[in-house]
UniProtKB/TrEMBL annotation:
Subcellular localization(s) per the UniProt record: Membrane
Gene3D superfamilies, alphabetized: Cation efflux protein transmembrane domain, Cation efflux protein, cytoplasmic domain
Lipid bilayer topology: Multi-pass membrane protein
Signal peptide interval: none
Species in which this protein is naturally found: Clostridium punense
Name of the protein described by the UniProt record: Cation diffusion facilitator family transporter
Any one Pfam family match given in the protein's UniProt record, by short name: Cation_efflux
Residues of the Cation efflux protein cytoplasmic domain: 228-304, 317-388
Species classification: Bacteria, Bacillati, Bacillota, Clostridia, Eubacteriales
NCBIfam families associated with the record: CDF
Length: 394
C-alpha cells in the first residue's frame, strides 16, 4: 500500500513502464527511498550497537551504511544508462545499469569481509554485551522496515525489469536475515555469559558474503551474455509463425544491450515460389509489429524453401525417418538438394542441445550415422551436414 502510494506520488505516468523516462523515474525513486531508509537504519543500529556494546549490531549498522552507497550507485546507474546512443555506443548505454548492480554487489562483499575480521577479533577478545529492552525493540522495528524495503525493491524492480533494483531487493532480504540473527544473539546474551556476539557477527558476515556472491553472479550474467528469457524466445517464434507464408523459424539470436534494449535476429522459412516483393512486404511488417509489441529491435532473414517439389519433399521425409536413429538430434533446417542426375548433395543443418559437449569426432560420428541411414534410400547421394547448437533450449 505504501509502495503504491509512493509510486503514484512520485512517478508520473507510472503504468507506462516501457517508457524510458518513466523507467528512469522508478530507478530514482528506488535509490532515494533506499538512501533515506538505510540512513535511518544505520542511525538506529549504530546507536543500539554502542549502547549494548555489540560488534554484531555495529556490523549490521555499517552494512546498512554501505547500502546507502549502493543506492547512490543505483541512481547514477539509471542516470547514465538513460543516455541516448552516440557514435561510440550505437546501441545506447543500457549495460551501465548492470555495471551499477555489479558495484553494489562488490560493496556488499567488502562489508562482509571487513566484519569477518571484526567478529574474529571479538571472538579472540570477548566483551560482555548488555541487553536492554528499548534498544532491542528498536532493532525489531528496523527489521520490519528492512522487510518492507525488500518488498518495495522487488515490486519496482519487477515492474521495470531492473537487475540493479532486484539486486538491492535481494540485498535487503539478506539484511533481514542478518538483522534477525543479530536480534536473536542480543536476546540470548541476556541468559548467558558465553561470547556469542562474535560468533553471531561471523554468521552475519557469512550471510552478507553469500548475498554479495549471488548478486555478482546475477549481474555478471547479462554482461557476459546470458541466455535470453524463454518467454521472449517463445513470443518471437509464435508471433512470427502467425504471419502468412512463414512456415518455420530457426537461428534465433538475442543480444541484450540493457533493459529495454534488446536486438534479435531470426531466420524465417518462406515458400520459394512466392513473389519476392510480396514476401518482403510481409517480413517488413512482421519486423515492425513484433518489435513494437515486444519492445525489441527484430531483424528477419528470409530462407526460401521448396514446398511443392516431390523429390525434395520425399528426401525430407527420409531424413526425418533417418534422424529417429540419432536421438541426440532435435531438429533440422535449411534443407536443400543440389546437383544434377542421380548423384546429388543433400545439404542441411541439424540441431543438438547445447548441453551436449560434443567433440569433433562425435560430431563426425553423428554425420556418418545420418549419411549411412540416408544412403539406404539414396545410395548415390551425399549428405553435407552442419551441426548447430541450440543455446536457447527450445
Amino acid at each position: 500500500m505504501i509502495s503504491n502510494f509512493l509510486i503514484k506520488k512520485f512517478v508520473k505516468n507510472y503504468s507506462d513502464v516501457k517508457n524510458k523516462k518513466v523507467r528512469e523515474k522508478y530507478g530514482y525513486l528506488g535509490g532515494v527511498i533506499g538512501i533515506l531508509a538505510n540512513l535511518i537504519l544505520f542511525g538506529v543500529k549504530f546507536t543500539v550497537g554502542v549502547i549494548v556494546n555489540s560488534i554484531a549490531v555495529t556490523a549490521d549498522a555499517f552494512n546498512n551504511l554501505s547500502d546507502v552507497g549502493s543506492s547512490l550507485v543505483t541512481i547514477f546507474g539509471f542516470k547514465l544508462s538513460a543516455k541516448p546512443a552516440d557514435k561510440e555506443h550505437p546501441f545506447g548505454h543500457g549495460r551501465i545499469e548492470y555495471i551499477s548492480g555489479l558495484i553494489v554487489a562488490s560493496l556488499v562483499l567488502l562489508v562482509g569481509f571487513e566484519f569477518i575480521k571484526s567478529s574474529f577479533d571479538r571472538i579472540k577478545n570477548p566483551t560482555p554485551v548488555e541487553f536492554s529492552l528499548v534498544p532491542f525493540s528498536l532493532l525489531l522495528i528496523s527489521i520490519l522496515l528492512k522487510v518492507w524495503l525488500s518488498r518495495f525493491y522487488k515490486s519496482i524492480g519487477g515492474k521495470i525489469n531492473s537487475s540493479a533494483l532486484r539486486a538491492s531487493g535481494v540485498d535487503a532480504l539478506s539484511d533481514v536475515i542478518s538483522s534477525s540473527t543479530v536480534a536473536l544473539s542480543l536476546l540470548i546474551s541476556k541468559f548467558t555469559t558465553l561470547p556469542i556476539d562474535g560468533y553471531i557477527g561471523m554468521a552475519v558476515s557469512a550471510v552478507i558474503l553469500y548475498a554479495g556472491y549471488n548478486l555478482i553472479k546475477d549481474t555478471l550474467n547479462p554482461l557476459l551474455g546470458s541466455a535470453p528469457d524463454k518467454d521472449l524466445v517463445d513470443s518471437i517464434q509464435t508471433m512470427l509463425l502467425s504471419y502468412d507464408y512463414i512456415d518455420g523459424t530457426h537461428d534465433l539470436l538475442v543480444h541484450n544491450y540493457g533493459p529495454g534494449r534488446i536486438i534479435a535476429s531470426i531466420h524465417a522459412e518462406v515458400p520459394l515460389n512466392i513473389s519476392v516483393v510480396k514476401i518482403h512486404e510481409i517480413i517488413d511488417r512482421a519486423e515492425k509489429e513484433i518489435s513494437a509489441e515486444l519492445d525489441i529491435y527484430l531483424v528477419i532473414h528470409m530462407d526460401p524453401i521448396t514446398t511443392d517439389d516431390k523429390e525434395i519433399l520425399a528426401a525430407k521425409e527420409e531424413l526425418t525417418e533417418a534422424l529417429k536413429s540419432v536421438p541426440v538430434v532435435k531438429s533440422f533446417h535449411d534443407f536443400r538438394v543440389v546437383g544434377e542426375g542421380d548423384s546429388k548433395n543433400l545439404i542441411f543443418d541439424v540441431v543438438v542441445d547445447a548441453d551436449n559437449k560434443l567433440t569433433v569426432e562425435e560430431e563426425l560420428k553423428i554425420q556418418n550415422l545420418i549419411n549411412i541411414e540416408l544412403k539406404k534410400k539414396y545410395p548415390n547421394h551425399n549428405a553435407i551436414i552442419t551441426v548447430d547448437k541450440d543455446y536457447l533450449g527450445v
